[in-house]
């Protein structure tokens, strides 16, 4: 039986996740998931006003977040920094006081050298105020957080606005715009699929069976599923990668739709509390490897899934599945332990290429034997 094993919210994009026993569905996925982002206001170190990702600033992973539901605040902490507290409620922002101003956050991956890259629209938000700006500016400019010769940057924490979230259908699905970086007219996207500061879709589902298979292939035992930054973790599937065959499934009375497998960048190679690569020293869990050993392992096992050109510049080895949900179920609570019922299937993950090392070994032995026999005669 497949069940929800974990629900992991990431309130601040690219900061640490928060494991919760239950979460409420909103218009953009789970409430509070990727509701905040950090931006380099003037573009001194990162692209100006871009929602910062660990792809560009790995030490975002060192920022811990606690959701205090009783006090209605986020408690934000980082090494050698005082705890910062900001309100959770959107209504607490935008009154014009305490430095709360509207900021146009770019949801993109833009090069800071040539301006190239991809754009998935804007998601305006309110700055979290002067104290938050001072905190992030101090921390993210520290030399142990960013080693660079670039001038110090002004960093702001931004709280998204419900009225100005982004439509997934603008860049994926039957009505995607001509400037979309993807070739996704075929995806099962509906007009109600919306996001805040997520990269692509409201939900990212990952499986414990699949991470176990990846661990086995790498020779490791404890490579963490948290590095793949899914917000829904399931367990109990019939097999590893089975989740890629779930076209439609229900959880707690809510219908979820498969949208697309998730191509992985460098972030899953990193420890989600230090920002360092798991294989930083050339070894993890007693196994020698390179920085991107997880991605390389997936590419070798499933080469068919490592070069899906419909992603264009996003092409990479898949791990996890993006999903959308029933827009009529806003307010429904999904909990750890809820059963996942697959109601419609699709062609899933292709079988991995077989390990032919033993065959090559025996072929070499045969060649040597034939050579010896030929020599004797």
Protein topology:
Blueprint (H helix, E strand, L loop, with lengths): L2 E7 L8 E3 L1 E5 L2 E2 L5 E5 L23 E5 L4 E5 L6 E4 L14 E2 L2 E5 L6 E6 L2 E3 L2 H11 L14 E6 L5 E2 L26 E2 L7 E5 H11 L13 E4 L10 E6 L2 E10 L19 E2 L2 E2 L4 H9 L16 E8 L7 E3 L4 E6 L11 H20 L1
Parallel strand pairs: 16-17
Antiparallel strand pairs: 1-2, 1-17, 3-4, 3-23, 5-13, 6-7, 7-8, 9-12, 10-11, 12-13, 14-15, 16-22, 18-19, 18-24, 19-22, 20-21
Note down, in words, how this protein is organized:
The structure is a single chain. This protein has about 375 residues and is an alpha+beta fold. About 15% of the residues lie in helices and about 30% in strands. A hairpin with a 6-residue loop joins strand 10 and strand 11. The relative contact order is 0.16. Residues about 355-360 have low confidence and may be disordered.
SSE succession: EEEEEEEEEEEEHEEEEHEEEEEHEEEH
* Largest β sheet strand count, sense and barrel closure: 8 strands, mixed
Strand order of the largest sheet: 2-1-17-16-22-19-18-24
Mean pLDDT level: 92
Residue windows where pLDDT falls under 50 for at least 5 positions: 355-360
The helicity comes to 10-25%
Number of E strands = 24
Count of alpha and pi helical runs: 4
Rg from Cα: 23 Å
End-to-end C-alpha gap:
64 Å
């Amino acid at each position: 039986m497949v069940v929800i094993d974990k629900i992991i919210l990431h309130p601040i994009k690219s900061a640490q996740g928060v494991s919760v026993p239950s979460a409420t569905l909103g218009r953009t996925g789970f409430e509070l998931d990727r509701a905040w982002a950090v931006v380099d206001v003037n573009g001194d170190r990162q692209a100006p006003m871009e929602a910062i990702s660990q792809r560009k600033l790995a030490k975002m992973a060192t920022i811990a977040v606690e959701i205090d539901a009783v006090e209605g605040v986020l408690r934000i902490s980082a090494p050698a920094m005082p705890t910062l507290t900001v309100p959770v409620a959107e209504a607490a922002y935008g009154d014009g006081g305490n430095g709360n101003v509207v900021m146009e956050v770019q949801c993109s991956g833009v090069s800071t050298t040539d301006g190239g890259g991809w754009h998935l629209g804007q998601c305006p938000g309110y700055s979290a105020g002067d104290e938050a700006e001072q905190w992030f500016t101090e921390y993210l400019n520290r030399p142990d957080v960013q080693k660079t010769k670039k001038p110090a940057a002004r960093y702001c924490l931004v709280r998204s606005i419900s009225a100005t979230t982004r439509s997934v259908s603008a860049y994926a699905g039957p009505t995607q715009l001509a400037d979309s970086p993807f070739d996704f007219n075929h995806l099962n996207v509906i007009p109600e699929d919306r996001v805040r500061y997520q990269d692509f879709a409201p939900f990212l589902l990952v499986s414990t069976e699949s991470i176990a298979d990846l661990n086995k292939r790498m020779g490791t035992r404890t490579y963490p599923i948290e590095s793949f930054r899914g917000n829904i973790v399931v367990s109990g599937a019939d097999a590893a990668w089975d989740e890629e065959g779930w076209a439609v499934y229900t959880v707690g009375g809510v219908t979820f739709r498969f949208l697309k497998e998730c191509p992985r960048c460098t972030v899953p190679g990193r420890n989600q509390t230090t920002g360092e690569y798991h294989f930083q020293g050339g070894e993890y869990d007693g196994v020698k490897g390179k920085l991107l050993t997880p991605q390389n392992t997936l590419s070798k096992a499933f080469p068919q899934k490592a070069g899906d050109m419909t992603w264009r510049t996003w092409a990479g080895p898949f791990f996890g599945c993006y999903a959308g949900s029933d827009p009529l179920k806003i307010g429904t609570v999904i909990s750890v332990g809820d059963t996942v019922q697959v109601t419609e299937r699709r062609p899933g993950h292709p079988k991995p290429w077989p390990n032919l090392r033993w065959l090559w070994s025996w072929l070499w032995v045969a060649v040597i034997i034939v050579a010896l026999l030929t020599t004797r005669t």
